[in-house]
Amino acid sequence: MQVLFIEPAYKNKYPPLGLMKLSAFHKQRGDEVCFVKGLDKYLRGQLWDRIYITTMFSFHWAETVKTIKYYEFSVKDPRNLFIGGPMATLMANEIHEETGFIPVKGLLNEKGKLRLSGDHRVDGMVPDYSILEEIKYKYPASNAYFAYMTRGCVRRCPFCAVPKIEPFYVEYVPLRKQIQMINDNYGEKKDLLLLDNNVLASPKFDKIIDEIKEAGFHRGAKLNNSLRYVDFNQGIDLRLLTKGKMRRLAELPIQPLRIAFDHITLKDSYIQKINWAAKLGFKKLSNYILYNYVDTPEDFYERLRINVDLNEKLGTQIYSFPMKYIPVTNKDRKFVGKHWTLRYLRSIQCILQATHGVVSPRKEFFEAAFGRDIKEFRKLLIMPDKYIIYREDHKNNGTAEWSKLLGSLSATQKKDFLRIVHENRFDGSVASEYPEVNTLLEHYKKGKCQASEQHLF
Ligand code: SF4
User: 361: buried, middle or exposed (CB in 10 Å: 19+, 13-18, 0-12)?
Assistant: First the structure.
């Protein structure tokens, strides 16, 4: 058979493991495989025995559907065009309606999903790393073993896609054989990237840590004189983190240690556990901060602030990664949470654009970007794009005038001003009955932000 594997042209950090496993499966059968990212005229012009298209987030909807439609006639029999992956699992009906193809849902660990003998083994196969060399696109994380030691998750967090995609928790998947086979086929890798959704929930946690160490990943381990690192890239579950488990994690060269801080109610537990981590020698930490969900802008700011204060106190480097909540089946990124508005989200986007999506662990940078306190942050959230981004440039010309005008509005005028600002429509289609408000709105009209950190500070 001649088989084509396709990943749509969205930007992503990690290679498509599902396609890599499928490639290994087909190669084992003696089939010829080809991998492409995005649209390719030459490959589209051929007739393939099988085509597999992977999908990722629902907000890649437009790009993904475009890719499916582009290749729909490049397969000999339409029943042999397979669409899989997270978005395909969550939005199978919508994809079917839009493209006419019925996606394959969930993991490839059941017989018959691909109508080939042995197809239930695909999920357990060692990924074929060699297909990554066939494309120009370079995945930022590539010199690493990609593996799982558990599957699924024991929790059912309503904002998360994992329970729907992998509904059953598998408490242990052996690592040794996976690494051995990768070494034999593709050579040794420096780092170990574990994609487990919730490793702390496993009753076999101790065995998992032992096995990772035996595979050559203990603290201080090197490969060709370079330090090796382990990364649980989905983060570890704060609520299941005990002192004992933290001690065991500290036996591994984890960098960064990723912990989610999804809600302010977890504040005390979060601070306590970061203190443990610092005592056990974890210096680099990475913190996912979910916003635009049930949180408020104030608690979002507070969570960022906690990290900056912890860094000062403990000498750690906690990098915060704000993650905007989008329901797992939204076709774009336009969702607005209960306590958020279009203007607030746009302002956060402007701040993060300048900081490349990461919040600096250093206080002076954090305060320059997000304000020195909640009051300053609140003000930033309603500022015109250009004054947020090019803050230094506009400090005395623009921002000062905007600020003065804002301060001079009466309570009724301010209410009307905020009503318009929160809609984030500054094309003149929405106006106020108060001339003062319209003058203030003029500041929002010109200038889009395309910025880097140098503009901000
Ligand atoms: S603990 Fe993490 S992986 Fe598990 S359901 Fe919640 S968010 Fe998803």
Answer: buried
Q: pTM of this prediction?
A: 0.86
Ligand 1 atom nearest the C-alpha of 153 is 4
154 CB near ligand 1 (under 6 Å): no
Q: Kindly give the pairing relationship between strand 222-223 and strand 226-227.
A: antiparallel
**Measured from the CA of 262, which atom of ligand 1 is nearest?**
7
The tens digit of pLDDT for each residue in 367-424 reads 989 999 999 999 999 999 988 888 777 776 788 899 999 999 999 999 999 999 998 8
Structural domain ending residue among the three candidates 124, 150, 166: 124
Report which of 136, 140, 139, 114 is spatially closest to residue 125, judged by C-alpha positions. 114
Residues 83 and 203 grouped into a single domain: no
Ligand 1 near 155 CB (within 6 A): yes
Specify whether the CB–CB gap between 216 and 228 falls below 8 A.
Answer: yes
Question: Which residue has a Cα nearest atom 1 of ligand 1?
Answer: 155
**Pair (367, 409) in one structural domain:** no
Which numbered atom of ligand 1 lies nearest the CA of 159? 7
Cis ω for the linkage preceding 174 (within 30 of 0):
no
**What range defines the domain where residue 400 resides?**
385-456
Ligand 1 mutation target, pool 151, 153, 241, most atoms within 8 A of CB = 153
Nearest to 370 by CA among 386, 388, 384, 357: 388
Query: Are 387 and 443 in contact, with CB atoms under 8 Å apart?
Result: yes
Domain count, the chain: 3
CB neighbour list of residue 378: distance below 8 Å, 6 or more residues apart: 297, 298, 371
